[in-house]
Amino acid sequence: MSGGNTQTTGKDVAEQLSVPGKTNSSAELDAARQRAPTIMDFRSASTGIAAKQMRNEINKLIESVQDPEEKRHFANEMQNFFMLFNRYLQEKARGEKLEWNRVNSPSADHVFAYKKVDGVDPKILDKLAVVCLNGGLGTTMGCVGPKSVIEVRDGLTFLDLKVRQIEHLNTEYGCQVPLLLMNSFNTQDDTDRVIRKYENHNINILTFQQSRHPRFSKESLLPIARSADDDKAKWYPPGHGDIFDALHNSGLLDKLIAAGKEYIFVSNVDNLGAVVDLSILQSIMDKQAEYVMEVTDKTKADVKGGTIIDYDGQVRLLEVAQVPADHVEDFKSVKKFKIFNTNNIWINLKAIKRVIDNDELNLEIIVNNKVTDSGEAVIQLETAIGAAIKHFKNAAGINVPRSRFLPVKSCSDLLLIKSGLYNLEHGVLTMNPSREFQGTPVVKLGDTFKKVANFEKRFKSIPDITELDHLTINGDVWVGKKVTFAGTVIIVANEGNRIQIPDGTILENKLVSGNLAIIDH
After folding, report:
1. What's the pLDDT score for residue 248?
2. Which residue range forms the structural domain that includes residue 360?
3. Domain boundary residue among 370, 387, 404?
4. Catalytic residue among 71, 409, 460, 482
5. Judgement on whether residues 280 and 324 belong to the same structural domain of the protein
6. Which of 44, 187, 217, 501 is the most buried (most CB within 10 A)?
7. At 71, is the secondary structure helix, strand, or coil?
8. Pairing status of strand 151-153 against strand 314-318
9. Contacts of the segment 421-426: beta carbons below 8 A, 24+ positions apart
10. Do 446 and 368 share a domain, yes or no?
11. Do 486 and 365 fall into the same domain?
């Protein structure tokens, strides 16, 4: 057999069946062609086998659970995983891809402008619950445990700030907005311990856990876990699109509806700009929108962010991973797609129940390729909450100010939040009014600042960046106390060299490179 990809057609098979010296009739050749397996037949057969093998492995995992209640819950999770896996196999076999010529910029009906609404009755807050996506760990920033317990400002953690925001809201308006934390199996236990310190606060905090799915081998398409209690590294939380099933399976969806709640406001716990806004809630109610996604204007730093599109007249979310390779630059362009998804989402609870009860959810699958510590290539199948926009009535985006998107994904973001660029009151960060330009400066810190511990050691104190436009620091750089950066500042220490910025230094529109130690004399 020759190498390469060889496709066998019905004609090829018919010719192979021909015997030298014998003429096959047309009927015999036609019959042979009809019996010949096509590439699609082969893929379908392979898909069926892979699905059956996965089903058998999942049954074994379920049988490894002894407690009846735990087994029931685990079986539900495994059924959801299997449905996702089966869809993955089918889409892979069909070679389904987004058709770029059907992708258009969102229409005016799909994205409306943010505006302050005067005279909003604060009683509408009694119809709201806040949900924070709290499944991530702080490992990227060199921390142990849930990311939400990293200190970000004045000794306060992400979670502290969120609790202060909602507690102040409840106190000021005499309402009872609860805070729900969707944890992963990585963060559930630690979070339950941490929230005990808020017991005497004016806030009701509830937790629920998203699903746990098995990583599977890219080669064999079988789970790498052999039992339900195998090492955590063999499992993964399947993305925030799992929130719908997690709310339903936990019983919280029905409890919230029974308590008179109508909407949830969902955001990432590390987005410090995601605060409850009465104007947005009132606008959503006025429009009777079941689902509203907060979007904001793109900058050059946001070109990979998901965006709302018009796909054959339907509003949808488009992620960069879905874009055909030859159109990635089109996707990144701010000409066609001027906005991106902040992952601040407002959803009607009864609409969620309807969509789940009718089994309508069909979220686009995100294929996340990973490599285990042992070097094995594995796959995680995930979904995003933003992909659900297509399933709700009157769904739309709302173009909000950039101030509602303040994520902290790295120590570069942490420098901004810790600085005097923002004022902090009642857990809410607002731009310092003394900053002449309201845009956020671009900060790029190199690998020596990647971990929080190193970041804190290399900055004796947080510099004044009120008039900063751009800051790049790379290499072995140490910054003293009461330093000021303004304009564009680039500091690069060459390999093997060190740069020390002394206390009280003012750098404005400066490039500092090489090996430098500025000293007084």
Report:
1. 94
2. 100-404
3. 404
4. 409
5. yes
6. 187
7. helix
8. unpaired
9. 421/465, 421/466, 421/468, 422/153, 424/153, 424/154, 426/164, 426/165, 426/168
10. no
11. no
- Distance of alpha carbon 448 from alpha carbon 94, whole angstroms: 46
**pLDDT tens per residue across span 327-368:** 888 888 888 888 999 999 999 999 999 999 999 999 999 999
AA identity, residue 478:
W
Q: Is 409 a catalytic residue?
A: yes
Number of Cβ within 10 Å of residue 504's Cβ equals 11
Please check whether residues 185 and 317 belong to one and the same domain: yes
Given a contact cutoff of 8 angstroms between Cβ atoms, the answer to whether 207 and 191 are in contact is yes
β-strand pairing of 428-431 with 422-425: antiparallel
Angstrom distance (rounded) from CA 211 to CA 201: 29
Residue 453 and residue 314 share a domain: no
User: What is the number of structural domains in the chain?
Assistant: 2
Domain boundary among 404, 433, 455: 404
Q: What is the CATH number of the domain that holds 302?
A: 3.90.550.10
Q: At what angle do helices 243-250 and 68-94 cross, to 10 degrees?
A: 160
Residue 245 placed within a domain: yes
At 336 the pLDDT is 81
Q: Are residues 196 and 296 in the same domain?
A: yes
CA distance 490 to 483: 14
List the structure tokens of 336.
């066609």
Task: Say if residue 72's pLDDT is above 70.
Answer: yes
- Residue 433: how many other CB atoms lie within 10 Å: 8
**E strands, 20-158, in order:** 103-104, 111-113, 128-134, 151-153, 156-157
Among 243, 183, 231, residue whose Cα is nearest residue 378: 231
397 shares its domain with 471: no
pTM of the model as a whole: 0.87
